[in-house]
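User: Design a sequence. Structure:
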């Protein structure tokens, strides 16, 4: 199973991938993380943190869709840190060709939502890979609201807007907190975090198998 974290520009994707992968690992899912970004921030985090408790593979290539499947064990969950779609569209499209779920990271602000819709329409990018996928359908996509402010009305307003525009939006949000903003390059424990809550929501929604039941 491949979970692709995507965004048009900067949206804390590397932070999300690191924490999400740790949360899955701590729930006893077999995890592998993929660096599909030339920045190599995820790989540097892995090194500086003394090594993640799961492998991190380098796959920042338009051949991702061919290279990755043979490397994954049955039941393994691959969490992918995709590069910015505006700059690395060929890699993002390659990842989406085989992704089981796309997680679109965005902050609930006018500027960030505008980036989702313009100049590179993320819905069009996601939809256009349908013809390259075995089932002929685009990958299921859910929006993850990041860098949210506690009790800010903007979060609900933008959630409602995105849902009206036809997007699936996670109830779980990632708050703008120091523990996330400054966590890159350091060891983390995801238990009890917003990313742990995200795993619970994904299981409840049937987007993930229950821990320990994956084939």
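Assistant: Done.
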């Amino acid at each position: 199973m491949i979970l692709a974290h995507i965004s048009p520009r900067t949206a804390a994707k590397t932070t999300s991938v690191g924490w999400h992968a740790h949360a899955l690992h701590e729930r006893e899912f077999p995890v592998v993380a993929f660096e599909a970004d030339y920045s190599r921030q995820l790989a540097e985090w892995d090194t500086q943190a003394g090594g993640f408790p799961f492998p991190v593979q380098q796959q920042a290539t338009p051949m991702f869709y061919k290279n990755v499947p043979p490397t994954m064990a049955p039941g393994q969950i691959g969490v992918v840190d995709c590069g910015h779609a505006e700059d690395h569209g060929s890699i993002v499209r390659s990842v989406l060709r085989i992704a089981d779920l796309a997680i679109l990271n965005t902050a609930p602000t006018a500027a960030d939502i505008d980036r989702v819709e313009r100049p590179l329409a993320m819905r069009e990018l996601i939809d256009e890979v349908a013809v390259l996928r075995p089932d002929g359908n685009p990958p299921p996509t859910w929006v993850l609201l990041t860098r949210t402010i506690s009790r800010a009305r903007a979060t609900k307003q933008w959630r409602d807007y995105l849902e009206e525009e036809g997007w699936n939006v996670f109830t779980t949000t990632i708050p703008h907190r120091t523990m996330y903003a400054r966590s890159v390059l350091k060891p983390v424990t995801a238990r009890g975090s917003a990313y742990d809550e995200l795993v619970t929501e994904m299981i409840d929604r049937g987007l993930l198998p229950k821990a320990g039941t994956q084939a």
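The chain has nine helices and eight strands. The first strand starts at residue 2 and ends at 6.
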